[in-house]
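Teaching assistant here, posting this on the class forum so everyone can see the example we discussed in section. The complex has three components, and the goal was to see what a joint structure prediction looks like when all of them are supplied at once.
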Amino acid sequence: MNVEILTPLLDVLDILGVAVFALSGALLAAKDRQTFVTMVFFALMTGVGGGTVRDLLIGAPVFWISDPWIAFACFAVALLTWMTPTRWWEGKLLEFADGAGLTGYAVLGAAKALSYGVPPVPAVLMGVVTGCVGGIIRDVVAGRPSIIVGPELYITAATLSAALCVLGEVIGLPRIPVWIAAGTAGFLLRSAAIHWKLALPAYSREA
Amino acid sequence: MNVEILTPLLDVLDILGVAVFALSGALLAAKDRQTFVTMVFFALMTGVGGGTVRDLLIGAPVFWISDPWIAFACFAVALLTWMTPTRWWEGKLLEFADGAGLTGYAVLGAAKALSYGVPPVPAVLMGVVTGCVGGIIRDVVAGRPSIIVGPELYITAATLSAALCVLGEVIGLPRIPVWIAAGTAGFLLRSAAIHWKLALPAYSREA
Amino acid sequence: MNVEILTPLLDVLDILGVAVFALSGALLAAKDRQTFVTMVFFALMTGVGGGTVRDLLIGAPVFWISDPWIAFACFAVALLTWMTPTRWWEGKLLEFADGAGLTGYAVLGAAKALSYGVPPVPAVLMGVVTGCVGGIIRDVVAGRPSIIVGPELYITAATLSAALCVLGEVIGLPRIPVWIAAGTAGFLLRSAAIHWKLALPAYSREA
C-alpha cells in the first residue's frame, strides 16, 4: 500500500492534525506566560513529535523534514496563539478537536506503518505513538504530569482507532471505509470520555 | 560478526531481558496507582527503550518493530502485574533480576554495535545505552529522579560488562566465553553494590 | 555541498563545540554533587545530544558513532571537571563560550542539513535543534526547568545564525564568509543578551 496516492486529501488532513496538536502546545506555553519563541518551539514539538518518533522507528524519512509547509503551519498556529486571548481556543471545542487529531493520527500512523511492512501488533503501537507522543514530549519538557499518567480514556481511544485500522487491513476490507470507521469509533469513545468524564479503573490491590 | 547466527539462544535471552525491564516499568505504574493502559505503556517504554535508542544510533532496524513477540511480552508482563499484588515482585529478587538484565543487555548492545562496524569506544557506550536508557525514559516520563542521578553502582556495572565485551573482541578472544565473563563480572559488581549498598564518591570540592 | 571537504578545520571546531556543551553538562552534575560516572553521562548527553537528534532527523549517520574522538572529548571534559573546583569554569566566560558553541553549532547544523538536501525552512530548524537540544535533554534528565522555558534570548540567537546561514545559501553567496557572518551575528546577539540581560516579552494577554 502506498499512502502517497491519497496525497491531496491526506495532506490537508495531515496539516490539520499537526495544527490541532501545535495549538495545544502553543496554548500551554501561553498559559505559562512564555515568549513567542518558546511558543513556536512548543507548537513544533507537540505538532510533529508523534509522527517524528513513528518515522524514526519504522525507518521512514521524517515527514516534516522534506515538507516545509508543516513547519510553517506550526509557526502560523503559534503566531495566532500569540495574537489572541487563550480563552478563544480553550474549553470543550479544543478538547474535541484534540480528540479528532488523536484518533485521526492513530489511523494514519497505523496505516503508514503497515505500508512500510510493519507487522500488525507493532503497527497498532505505531498508531498509538503517532497520536500520543507529541503530547508526552510537550508535558515532559514543560515539567508537568504527562497525559499518559492518569485514568483518562486517551491512549485507549487512540488504541481503538489504530487496532480497528489494522484489523480491517488484516481481514482484507477496503481501506477508505475502514479508516473512516476506525477514526470515528475512537473519536466517539474519546468524546464520550470527555462528556461523561469516563475514566479507567486504577490499580488498587493491596501492596 | 552477525549476532543473528546465535538466534535461538539470544532470542530467548532477549525476551527475558525485555520482560525484566518491562516488569520494573509496570511495577512503577502499579505503585503510582495507574490504570492498566498506563501500565502497558510503561512496560513498553522501559522494556524496549534502551535497545530502541541503540538501534537508532547505530542505524540498525529497530528490533521490536519487525518482531511482534517483544511487544506481546511487554503486554503479558503488564497483565501479570495488573492481576497480582506488587509485593510478589518487589524486593531483592527484582533488584538482582534487573541487574542481570542490565549487564546482559550491556553485553548484547556492545556486541551488536561491534557487529555493525561501530568503533570500540562508541560500542562500549552503545552497551551502556542499551542497559540504562529504558530506565531513564521510565523515570523522566514518571517525573521522578532518574537512576543515573545518584551514587549507586548502576551505570558503572553496565560499563564494566560492555567494556570487557569490547576488549575481548579487540584482542581477538573467542566470543561466547568473553560474553559470559563480561556479563558475569558486571552482574557480580552490581550484586555486590545491592548487597553492601556500595556507592561511588560524589563530587565534593568546595565550589 | 559536502561538509566533509572542510574537514581539518571543521573537525577541530566541532570537537571544541562538543567540549563546551559537555562542560556545561558536567558542571551541572558537579553542582548537584553527583558521582564521576553521572558527570560523564551528563557531559555526553549535553555534548552530543543536539547533533544526534539532527542526524536522526535528516537521515545522516550519527556523527559521534563513527568518530571515537568525540566520546573521548566528553570523557576528558568530565575528568577535568571532576578534578577542579567548579568556580574555575563558571561565570561569564562559560556563558560566552556556550553562546559561541550555540551559534557555531546552529550554523554547522543548518549547513549540514542543506548538504543533505533538506529544504530551507526545516534546515533552519535543524540548526536550532543542533544548538539547543543537548541543553534541553540535560535539563529534562536533571529534572530542572529547561532553558527554552524562559525569556532569555537563547533560541533566538541560534535561530538568527541558522537563518542567515540558510539565507546566504539560498541567494548563492560564497559559503565561508556567510558562515562566519552568520555565526558572528548570532554570537553578538547572544553576548548582548548576556551582558544587558535582554529578554523577550512574555505572553501577557488576559486569559
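For the discussion questions: Chain B has a mean pLDDT of 88. Chain B touches chain C through 32 residues (CB under 8 Å). Think about how each of these relates to the inputs above.
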